[in-house]
Design goal:
By secondary structure, this protein is of the alpha/beta class. The chain contains 10 helices and 11 strands. Helix content is 41%, strand content 16%. The strands form 3 sheets. It has a 6-stranded parallel sheet. The longest helix is centred in the first third of the chain and has 21 residues, at 7-27. Bound molecules: guanine (GUN).
Length: 279
């Protein structure tokens, strides 16, 4: 029987640990504070932002919300970020992506102080991760490492295959697994004989953004499968990048969708905010 990796449970565990740390910081007169900036009113972004604010409330982190109009200029947004960069009582700055087309996302990410880059998207954070220095790590891959560790799934010496090479998940995931002494392969849309490569994986991380893309033929018997995808099928039911029902009898452990990787992303955002306040 496969282990169903319970991300909801582990994320609550982490948030409860953070709650304690936030309380201790409060006793030292440090109130952990995250600024959440949303430009425009994309409905999906509003749901994500609300979930982040709810998590802050649960953990005891103060969240300051900046809901800016769709027509906000790049300079106005940069000005707000510069102001928040200088405020000592602000520990994290998060600009919800995507931004409206007239704003250059890279310029905005670059403007956030690396000391407050709780998303881990700043080039300095990415660079520090790749040379093994301390810094903020992108929340989804950091959450996956926590899931594996808390289920006592060691990465050391294992064949780990990442499907997807995004800056937010695939690439930092590969770096984190290298740091854990795994042998890492990164696959993507141009990889030849994908199933041959993925079948080598002891641990298979899938972040390709295509519903039920990974099937029986891609998975080795007894593999651990981590599914980063989140899609709604024709019946409005949520599914991941992995065909769960097809692989469930073959794997040794798997994350479900929903309730697997998803809740971990926000838990790690809370973790990064607390780390920032501790710095
Ligand atoms: N949009 C979708 N996911 C994320 C995220 O993790 N951080 C930010 N800033 N924007 C997002």
């Amino acid at each position: 029987m496969a282990t169903i990796i319970d991300g909801k449970k582990i994320s609550t565990e982490i948030k409860d640990e953070l709650k304690e740390q936030v309380k201790i910081l409060k006793e030292k007169n440090i109130e952990v504070c995250l600024c959440v900036i949303q430009v425009g009113a994309d409905p999906a972004s509003t749901i994500y932002v609300n979930n982040k604010k709810k998590a802050c409330e649960y953990v005891g982190i103060k969240s300051l919300s900046y809901e800016l109009g769709e027509d906000t200029s790049q300079d106005e947004l940069l000005e707000l970020i510069n102001k928040l960069n200088k405020q000592n009582d602000v520990h994290g700055i998060l600009v919800q992506l995507p931004l409206p087309k007239h704003i250059d996302e890279d310029k905005i990410i670059d403007a956030i102080s690396p000391n407050k880059d709780v998303d881990g998207f700043h080039p300095q954070s990415v660079g520090r991760l790749s040379i093994g220095k301390k810094g903020f790590v992108s929340c989804t891959p950091a959450g996956i490492v926590q899931l594996l560790k808390r289920y006592n799934i060691s990465m050391e010496g294992k064949e780990c295959v990442v499907v997807g090479r995004s800056n937010i998940v695939g690439k930092p995931m590969a770096m984190l697994m290298l740091r854990e002494n795994a042998t890492v392969t990164v696959c993507h849309s141009r990889t030849k004989n994908l199933s041959e490569v993925t079948r080598r994986a002891d641990i298979l991380i899938v972040a390709i953004g295509k519903p039920k893309f990974i099937t029986n033929e891609h998975v080795k018997e007894g593999a651990v499968v981590i599914d980063v995808g989140m899609h709604r099928n024709e019946n409005k039911k949520l599914c991941g990048d992995v065909d769960y029902d097809e692989v469930i009898d073959k794997v040794s452990a798997i994350t479900p969708v929903p309730g697997g990787v998803g809740p971990m992303t926000i838990a790690m955002l809370m973790y990064n905010c607390v780390e920032s306040a501790l710095m």
